[in-house]
UniProtKB/TrEMBL annotation:
This is Poly(A) polymerase. Its cofactor is Mg(2+). Keywords: Magnesium, Metal-binding, Nucleotide-binding, Nucleotidyltransferase, RNA-binding, Transferase, tRNA processing. Pfam families: PolyA_pol (PF01743), PolyA_pol_RNAbd (PF12627). Belongs to the tRNA nucleotidyltransferase/poly(A) polymerase family.
Length: 387
């Protein structure tokens, strides 16, 4: 183990109080992401604490100080402490005794080195004591962080077999913290990728959500596509790298990113997205963008009229070469500050003209499109004359 003497700036006002209380009866440190990000001078608001105290001991100590405790994952040794609206996840040191590719069976430990060894990547195994200003580095994670490397602790093949989600975690952490993919880890991901089929869709989607919005999403998704992971998860057989290269020039919503990823997919529908564990809202948003992108005739005025986030649709169309960016910029400048006019017609107006109920929806849509195409100017009576 290497001890690095360094003062870290932690984005929390209360973490030292929590640690001080726990350290009266045991030993506790900041662990994982908050240490890693502080070393990179990034703000970190998820404060994780590792302690050699048993969960019950930690609960008694903190409760006695009137700190609210939530037994988040008590059987795994995890509690959440809340102090002045700040949350701290506190976990008793653990050691893996059995892994099945999905979940690990653990026992509690008193050894920080054992706890560090069960973590996936070297950069996630760093711990920090703010009272001594010491960083504890068991696996050269500090060097890997400086060199922008994401590597497994131990053999990548063995660590992935313990939990196949680590395949996606490797790509996710590489997208944020690595300049390039570690070759041994990448090959292990390729070899073991079918283990992803044993995981829940919720766990898979959670990782993809984070990858797809990263700055290096273009390169990472391309690597995942090359070894068949995108096909395995989303049946993607054609990945357009240029779309994501262009997408990096814009701050796009998650749904828009997914629409670009899935643009060339055939026969997508709500049921498929729900099976992939997208929420209904997410699925409808992605499908709406895809329908717009696949429409033979873009009606950008209609999108402006109907969608609050109309810019997402237009920018996506620019990215796939369906619209010219200068044209879109000009449209946004003209329409973005305008109030939306009201479409005065409704179904009752058509019923009063003795139009059959089954035809009303289509005729209303036709009249609305005509109204939009004519800059929202035709009056109610003028529209009715079109019937």
């Amino acid at each position: 183990m290497q001890i690095i003497h360094k003062t870290l700036k932690i984005s929390s006002k209360e973490y030292k109080k929590i640690l001080s209380l726990l350290n009266k009866k045991g030993q506790s440190r900041l662990i994982g992401g908050c240490v890693r990000d502080a070393l990179l001078d990034k703000d970190t608001y998820d404060i994780d604490i590792a302690t050699n105290l048993m969960p019950g001991e930690a609960i008694n100590i903190l409760s006695s100080a009137n700190i609210k405790i939530i037994p988040t994952g008590l059987k795994f040794g995890t509690i959440t402490a809340i102090l002045n609206n700040e949350k701290f996840e506190i976990t008793t040191l653990r050691k893996d005794i059995e892994c099945n590719g999905r979940h690990a069976k653990v026992i509690f430990s008193k050894d920080f080195a054992e706890d560090a060894a069960r973590r996936d990547f070297t950069i996630n195994a760093l711990s920090y004591c703010p009272f001594k200003n010491e960083i504890y580095d068991y696996f050269d994670g500090f060097k890997d962080l400086q060199r922008a490397k994401v590597v497994f602790i131990g053999k990548a093949f063995n660590r992935i077999k313990e939990d196949y989600l680590r395949i996606l975690r490797f790509f996710r952490f590489s997208s944020y913290y690595a300049n390039q993919l570690d070759y041994e880890s990448f090959k292990a991901c390729d070899t073991l990728k079918y283990g992803l089929k044993t995981l829940s869709r919720e766990r898979i989607k959670s990782e993809i959500d984070k990858i797809i919005v990263s700055k290096r999403a273009t390169q990472i998704l391309e690597a995942m596509f090359k070894i068949g992971i995108l096909e395995l998860i989303f049946s993607i057989q054609n990945y357009e790298i240029k779309f994501f290269e262009r997408a990096n020039n814009f701050k796009l919503e998650l749904a828009t990113k997914y629409a670009l990823l899935l643009y060339n997919q055939q026969n997508l529908n709500l049921k498929i997205f729900l099976n992939w564990k997208f929420s209904k809202h997410e699925a409808m948003q992605i499908l709406s963008i895809l329908n717009f992108l696949n429409d033979a005739e873009f009606n950008i005025k209609k999108i402006w009229f109907e969608k609050k986030n109309y810019k997402e649709y237009l920018l996506a169309a620019c990215i796939i070469d369906k619209l010219d960016y200068s044209q879109v910029k000009e449209f946004i400048l003209k329409y973005d500050t305008l109030s939306h006019p009201k479409f005065e017609l409704n179904g009752n107006d058509l019923l009063n003209l003795n139009i059959e109920k089954k035809e009303i929806g289509a005729k209303l849509e036709y009249l609305k499109n005509f109204w939009i195409e004519h800059d929202f100017k035709p009056s109610k009576s003028e529209l009715l004359e079109k019937l």
